[in-house]
Design goal:
Blueprint: E1 9-14, H1 23-36, E2 41-46, H2 48-51, H3 58-75, E3 83-86, H4 92-101, H5 106-110, H6 113-122, H7 129-144, E4 149-152, H8 157-174, E5 182-185, H9 219-227, H10 245-258, H11 262-268, H12 274-300, H13 303-332
Parallel strand pairs: 1-2, 2-3, 4-5
Bound molecules: tryptophan.
Length: 339
């Protein structure tokens, strides 16, 4: 019997908007994706259709999409173990997205807090309708694959709730075709914060350049950022996110990259200053990012291999997505096209 059939299905996505992934992306999400290849029937995509909800420079966008794929492979996604694809290569996402748009209340979509925040920042005239329906497209991504679980950060919880509501609504109106997915909110232990402002999450939008470790940066520059991370006026190395967020962040990064437990690290650094911790962690980071950059470069230097990985991924993804979409069309009463 094929054991893969028994495995729960997961789907997740990452937008190709940032160029280099940062340490928060990797430790907070991508590392989990890599682990779930072994335990789940995993579908991972680069969410390029989501990226164009805000303006993108075409050349940069295309190269960032390649870069995102290269980094996912460098991080350990294995096309033999998971289905890795680019969202726009599977047209069914946009197609199911439309059907679900027509099932979503205007008020319901208006209550999405991420949309409210982003549109408030950009101003209503510069906010696209695409950004408004972003969560509905995300629901289509998830429902097309009959995903059981969706590993996401806490900021996506509301979008997952909407996805569940839409699945249930469709199922009760037209018959059960969609699996109602569970959110799998990624563990808080991997919550990496800004090195300079350790109360905000490490993120492209909220962090200053000095507060963020870009995985593709010069390793030396990353080492320097670790060494100048904000800590506190105390000298004790102890994990205490509330009172010592900077030090706790360094311990989290250290523990996550090396697999050493935090209590063990606390013991190892007892009586030593922050300088010692930072010097060692800088080295750990350099040792991790150096081969990561090389692997990424390797994939970028071999576009044929990368393209063929994506072609296979899209083919595998489409086989599943097309079947779900056909059922949705049929249940809603669309006249079938005869070939
Ligand atoms: N919105 C997600 C984010 O910004 C990315 C994403 C798009 C996604 N489609 C998805 C995540 C489907 C999970 C499932 O993090």
């Amino acid at each position: 019997m094929d054991m893969a059939i028994e495995r729960p299905r997961v789907l997740s996505g990452i937008q190709p908007t940032s160029g280099s992934f940062h340490l928060g992306n990797y430790l907070g999400a991508v590392r989990q994706w890599v682990a779930q290849q072994e335990t789940h029937d995993a579908f991972y995509m680069v969410a390029d259709l989501h990226a164009v909800t805000v303006p993108q420079d075409p050349a940069e966008f295309r190269s960032n999409t390649r870069l995102a794929v290269a980094q996912l492979l460098a991080a350990g996604l294995d096309p033999e173990r998971c289905t890795l694809f680019v969202q726009s290569h599977v047209p069914e996402h946009a197609q199911l997205g439309w059907l679900l748009n027509c099932l979503t209340g205007f008020g319901e979509a208006s209550r999405m807090t991420q949309f409210k925040d982003k549109s408030a920042k950009q101003g209503v005239e510069r906010t696209t309708v695409g950004l408004f329906t972003y969560p509905v497209l995300m629901a289509a991504d998830i429902l097309l694959y009959q995903s059981d679980q969706v590993p996401v950060g806490g900021d996506q919880r509301q979008h997952l709730e909407l996805t569940r509501d839409l699945a249930e609504r469709f199922n009760s109106r037209y018959g059960e075709i969609f699996t109602v997915p569970e959110a799998f909110i990624l563990k808080e232990t991997a919550r990496i914060v800004d090195l300079q402002d350790p109360v905000v999450k490490m993120s492209k939008s909220a962090s200053t350049p000095k507060g963020i470790i870009d995985l593709l940066d010069e390793p030396k520059a990353s080492a320097k950022k670790i060494k100048s991370a904000v800590t506190d006026t105390d000298t004790v190395i102890r994990f205490d996110e509330e009172h010592k967020p900077g030090v706790s962040n360094l311990l989290t990064i250290y523990a996550s990259l090396t697999g050493t437990g935090i209590p063990e690290l606390e013991q190892r650094y007892e009586g030593k200053g922050y300088g010692a911790l930072k010097t060692d962690l800088a080295e750990v980071v350099v040792e991790w990012v150096t081969p990561f950059r090389e692997r990424t470069r390797g994939y970028l230097d071999d576009p044929e291999t990368l393209d063929s990985i994506l072609a296979k991924g899209a083919e595998k993804a489409r086989a599943v997505a097309a079947e779900t979409l056909a059922q949705a069309y049929d249940r809603m009463g669309f006249l079938a096209a005869k070939h």
